[in-house]
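Worked example

This section walks through a single chain of length 312. The input is the sequence exactly as stored; nothing has been trimmed or padded.
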Amino acid sequence: MRLIPTRAWAATILFAAFAALPLIAGALEDSYLIVVATRILAYAIAALALDLILGYGGLVSFGHAAYLGIGAYAVAILNRAGVTDLGLHLLAAILGAAVFALVTGAISLRTRGIYFIMITLAFAQMAYFFFVSLSAYGGDDGVTLRARSTLFGRPLLEDDTALYYTALVLLLGLYLLAVAITRSRFGRVLTGARENPVRMRAIGFSPFRYQLTAYVISGCMAAVAGVMLANQASYVSPAFMNWHRSGELVVMVVFGGVGNLLGAVAGATIALLLEEWLAVLTDHWPILFGTVLILVVLYSRDGLAGFFRRRS
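Given that input, the structure is written out below as tokens.
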């Protein structure tokens, strides 16, 4: 799948806007804007990870929040052990997510449809209750980080702007990686397996291996989001991997447009901004948010990305 010029321009504009946001926040003297934007970037990474398997592999995972939790707890556990380097935190998160995704994915991918959704949810809930049982890390109450991850041996990420730009660099890098994957032969086989697995097997490809590989890659990407969320909040709890969180990720992808990587990033951004703005208006903001989501789904099957594409 080629990255068409229109989408390339849209990506350039979106990431340029992200890059300029700290300057805007400084001009407005609103430091909270940086905090919210960092959270948005972290969830954009998670939505991007989910869209890789949902939009291109047809795999509706309702347990991807488990990888957010694995990434977050990698920070908490290593931090408690005195290991504070961000690179090591990311490495531990990726390795932990890869092992979990490889084992659970190998089992889950032997099912299809609603059964795949339910088994991914079941594995995520198993991970959730496992971390609830870890009394050394606060159990259900979670644990507060002593400090954020260090970068190059220095506490650079204690500065909110530095943390924001670190999250932005990770999002940009993972977005380009996801685009490269979907444009490659691997991506085309993954899409073919979604459309017609029988035909793919007939021409010599094993859908299972491609889907499992994509599932592991997606889980590792989501774990990176967990690392950034832990640093942004300076707090980790099993709530990071609650099934509600998985549902929120699915909503973000649907909101932006399934099968559109940039749409996943935009969907996470707009969904979280709507959440912030509607919460100011009323305590019953989920009703308004749900209404907006229904309208988007009814009038644009491809989410916001499809809505804007038809008007371009």
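What to look for: The mean pLDDT is 90.
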